């Protein structure tokens, strides 16, 4: 489902619509509408924690504040640490911090809680809530419930 929503595969039947229009007619345009977080964290181990986010921000991820993104996921004190030194949970939080930089209205998340402790899941919940408060949407495939008030659940067989 996430791959379909991301435009990576075409629907076998029907159409994927964005505001009433075929979302997949212009894949480049559709890509600007979404931020995708998969199983791989896409962290550059040779860069520092903050550098990973700055490189993304400079590439046009929406121009939001790198410091605020680090703090949103509890990574402020690790900002200068090389990413290769991070634990699995810290790498996941760094990947999630990329979402805080994104201006995309649609966030597609594949197992976003992978490797996170309870405190980090709470930080993720707050990040997702802020995104939704700003009018954004979140679609997450997960085995664990997300701390997201009012979220609809679709159980797939």
Tell me about this structure.
With 157 residues, the chain is α/β, with parallel strands linked by helices. It has one domain (25-141): Rossmann fold (3-Layer(aba) Sandwich). Helices cover 36% and strands 11% of the residues. The strands form two sheets. The protein has a three-stranded parallel β-sheet. A two-stranded antiparallel ribbon has the order 1-2. Helix 4 crosses helix 5 (88-101). The longest helix has 16 residues, at 118-133. The chain is globular.
| Class inferred from helices and paired strands | alpha/beta
Silhouette: globular
Mean pLDDT metric? 91
Q: Trace the largest sheet across and list its strands.
A: 3-4-5
The name of the CATH architecture is 3-Layer(aba) Sandwich
What is the total number of structural domains?
A: 1
| Count of helical stretches | 6
Number of strand elements: 5
Query: How many angstroms does the end-to-end distance come to?
Result: 12 Å
Tell me the name of the CATH homologous superfamily: P-loop containing nucleotide triphosphate hydrolases
CATH class: Alpha Beta
Major sheet characteristics: 3 strands, parallel
Kindly report the CATH topology: Rossmann fold
Helix content: 25-40%
In terms of per-residue confidence, which ranges show pLDDT below 50 for 5 or more consecutive residues?
none
């Amino acid at each position: 489902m996430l791959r379909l929503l991301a435009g990576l595969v075409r629907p076998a039947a029907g159409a994927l619509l964005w505001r009433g229009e075929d979302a997949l007619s212009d894949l480049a345009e559709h890509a600007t509408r979404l931020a995708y977080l998969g199983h791989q964290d896409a962290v550059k181990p040779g860069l520092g924690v903050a550098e990973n986010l700055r490189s993304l921000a400079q590439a046009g991820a929406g121009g939001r504040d790198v410091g605020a993104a680090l703090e949103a996921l509890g990574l402020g004190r690790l900002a200068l640490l090389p990413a290769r030194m991070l634990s699995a949970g810290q790498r996941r939080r760094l990947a999630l911090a990329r979402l805080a930089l994104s201006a995309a209205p649609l966030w597609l998340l594949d197992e976003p809680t992978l490797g996170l402790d309870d405190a980090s899941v709470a930080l993720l919940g707050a990040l997702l809530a802020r995104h939704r408060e700003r009018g954004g949407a979140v679609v997450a495939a997960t085995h664990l419930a997300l701390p997201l008030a009012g979220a609809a659940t679709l159980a797939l067989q």
